[in-house]
Amino acid sequence: MTRRFFLILVSVFLCGEVCGQPVSEDAWRMEAESVVGDISWVDGEVRIPGARASLVVSDGFGYLDSYDAQRVLTRVWENPQDSGVLGLLIPLNVDLMSYDAWGVVIRYLPDGFLPDDAFERTDVALLMQEMQRQTRLANLEFGYGGLELIGWAPSPQYDPSRNLLFWGKSLENPRDNSRTLNLSYRLLGRKGIMALTAVATPEAADEVRAAMSQLVDQIAFEPGYGYSDYDPSRDELTLYGFRGLIAETYEPEADKTRAWLWSLLVLGLVLIAAWIWKSR
Questions:
Q1: How many independent structural domains does the chain possess?
Q2: Per-residue tens of pLDDT for the chain, all 280 residues
């Protein structure tokens, strides 16, 4: 079985719907081949729409704009529709239709300025315990057992010289004991946050981490929109802090439980769907 579900960013903005009924292997392959044969790769410097930022595509990678990224994510990798995806970076040596395919999903969170002095006060060990508790809550609330949050891989780290936050989460599907790593990089800006997310198998984790660390240095905000351009008299702060950004709820404090339950429902359904197709 070569079909895969690319588990992209876990957040309340992931999608408003979940995958429909699975189609046959032959029907999927015909559809996927049609999409792969029709996509347009972009290289060089590209502007990321709506983010006031640009990206220089590295050698060995190809960039897909929002339209083609959506087609690959939904029609080849069978993710739910997600209108927040702005682009997708994929290694050119990857077979898009293989189970081991991976890419970096690019989004922008236009949520304001996040003061970085608060990161030092973020207890990431306690946060993981809370996220694991919310995972168990979601399993009970929605009646499925297709998701276990194992722990950090690695734990959240903040680089003030680059205004860059990064972390990883290890997830397990107890149906077949398979694990995936959800790797997240967040580049802070004046008006919002660039979000890069990839999912990899544990075997490919080092390769993906190295690639993402390099790629994030090739994203730059436009002049006047970098982190150092923040103007406290004109710019708004985010409604969430580092805890909300790392937990990927993007909600004010009072709404975090509701947001986390919804995000876990979506991810759990995708994990279960992936297990079904792997076991066919």
A1: 1
A2: 344 444 443 332 333 334 445 568 888 899 989 999 999 999 999 999 889 999 999 888 999 999 999 999 989 988 878 889 999 999 998 899 887 788 999 999 999 999 999 898 999 999 999 999 988 887 776 655 567 899 999 999 999 999 999 999 998 887 778 888 889 999 999 999 999 999 888 888 888 888 888 889 999 999 999 999 999 999 999 998 999 999 887 554 434 444 444 444 444 444 444 444 444 4
Q: What is the CATH number of the domain that holds 180?
A: 2.60.120.1690
17 occurs within a structural domain: no
Read off the pTM: 0.81
Is 89 contained in some domain? yes
| Domain assignment of residue 239, yes or no | yes
- Domain of residue 40: give its range: 25-278
Q: H/E/C letters for each residue in the chain?
A: CCCCCCCCCCCCCCCCCCCCCCCCHHHHHHHHHHHHCCCCCECCEEEECCCCEEEECCCCEEEEEHHHHHHHHHHHCCCCCCCCCCEEEEECCCCCCCCCCCCEEEEEECCCECCHHHHHHCCHHHHHHHHHHHHHHHHHHHCCCCCEEEEECCCCEEECCCCEEEEEEEEEECCCCEEEEEEEEEEECCCCEEEEEEEECHHHHHHHHHHHHHHHCCEEECCCCCHHHCCCCCCCECCCCHHHHHHCCCCCHHHHHHHHHHHHHHHHHHHHHHHHHHCC
In a domain, 2, yes or no: no
